[in-house]
Amino acid sequence: MLGMRFYGHFPLAFLWILIAGSETFLLSKGGITSTFIRNEEKSLDMPLESDVFRVSSGYNAPQQVHITQGDRTGKAVIVSWVTEDEPGSSTVVYWSEDSSNKLEARGKVSTYKYYNYTSGYIHHCTIHNLEFNTKYYYKLGIGNTTRTFWFIVPPKVGPNVPYTFGIIGDLGQTYDSNRTLGNYEMNPVKGQSVLFLGDLSYADEYPFHDNLRWDTWGRFIERSAAYQPWIWTTGNHDLDYAPEIGETKPFKPFLNRYHVPFKSSKSTKPLWYSIKRASAYIIILSSYSAYGRSTPQYKWLRKELRKVNRSETPWLIVLMHAPWYNSNIAHYMEGETMRVVFEPFFVQSKVDIVFAGHVHAYERSERVSNIVYNIVNGKCTPVYDQSAPVYITIGDGGNVQGLADNFTEPQPAYSAFREASFGHATLEIMNQTHAFYAWHRNGDIYSFQADSLWLYNRYWYPMNDSTTIN
Ligand SMILES: [Fe+2]
């Protein structure tokens, strides 16, 4: 409905074109619907014996290694991993690239049960007081079975610090998921950490939410997530809420396996939190937790937005799972109730970009807002708004549910570009005012940059950066 109503504001000249019946104009007015012809094969999960799921050799070898930011500014890292045979050690040995001084951080180990599944020993260890802009090696495991990885601590938070994020959503563990991750790794634009938009393993697609598929997913992403932080957002496939088999604690596997630094942003739940990284302030919201007035998430976000200092972090980015502006028939308007509650805050705060997943296709919006409606004025339509974020839907990681290739027609005016293909995105923040964004459609080995634009910072340089509107 949102998209159709928008046409009420089109100039008379355009209405005449519609009446004249030119299909080309009808479809292109809202932006571009890509005509790319893709392989129609179904996305199939990789079998359990696939090499990407291989368990490291050696007794009790650490597996499913992944890291994420461990504090407010990036001076800490949370390292997580699983051992299968026994608890082993939760200690991480680490050292900086130019030092032989070995340091130790002690973590904790736990297990969980889900229906008839019992997890391996899940370790989480936070390393604090790291040096900015420094490469560290870290070693997990004990005895004859140790594994060594590395990460690079980001630069100190500041207004003109260049930094590159990768963006991936709804990944799953199919052959297409593997292509997405491989394309991200092979991209000449080198992402320094991943903003992940929810729906991780899709284990809930298996009988009784077979949690072995959470393990395989952890092994699958290790090749990236052990070396650069993945910043986690949760999606509906991470809920694992299944009262029919006695599982009534939402997000149980996710919360046991993926820790985030929610307390450092004064959040009360790991499902919504924020971090600062380089020149970006990143707010992570939960589409599947209460967000109405007076809820903890609502109250937290109100306070949170007031804390953002654009002189320190010029780029304000929000991650969520269910998109607000989506013209795909799949999940159409599912984000609407959250949009109604939070959109005015985003516009007031001049959020630069909102990334969402959920819809298994790609779409980028114009800068629009839909916040003036007050019941009696009839203005229940999006309008171009230079204080509004660009909304990017990128739930096209390649999971087992396949592509959402049915868009609403005509393409609404708020939609700048859309295409039902798998892929990933990169965001290269150059300085306080400019960032280059690109969406990379999957290829077999390399991806293709199918959509891109220069984004101008909403606080420091709020100029029109639309690709379709002068
Ligand atoms: Fe989803």
**Estimated share of beta-strand residues:** 25-35%
Compute the average pLDDT: 92
Distance between the termini: 26 Å
Helix content: 10-25%
The low-confidence runs, each spanning 5 or more residues with pLDDT under 50, are 1-28
Widest beta sheet: strand line-up: 1-23-19-22-18-17-16-15
**From the alpha-carbon coordinates, what is the Rg to the nearest angstrom?**
22 Å
Major β-sheet annotation: 8 strands, mixed
Number of helices: 8
Bound molecules: fe (ii) ion
Helix/strand-derived category reads alpha+beta
User: How would you sum up the global shape?
Assistant: globular
Compute the number of strand runs.
Answer: 26
Describe the protein in words:
By secondary structure, this protein is of the alpha+beta class. The protein is built from 8 helices and 26 strands. The protein has helices at residues 2-6, 12-20, 23-28, 175-186, 212-225, 252-257, 296-307, 336-348; strands at 32-33, 63-69, 77-83, 91-96, 103-106, 108-110, 113-114, 117-118, 121-127, 135-142, 145-152, 163-168, 193-196, 230-232, 273-277, 280-284, 315-319, 353-356, 362-365, 368-369, 383-384, 390-394, 415-419, 423-429, 434-441, 448-456. The strands form 6 sheets. An 8-stranded mixed β-sheet has the order 1-23-19-22-18-17-16-15, with no helix packed on it. Strands 14-13-12-24-25-26 form a 6-stranded mixed β-sheet, with helices on one face. Strand 25 and strand 26 form a beta hairpin. The protein starts with a helix and ends in a 14-residue tail after the last strand. Mean pLDDT is 92; it is low at 1-28. The structure holds fe (ii) ion (FE2). Fe (ii) ion binds at residues 170, 199, 235-237, 321, 358.
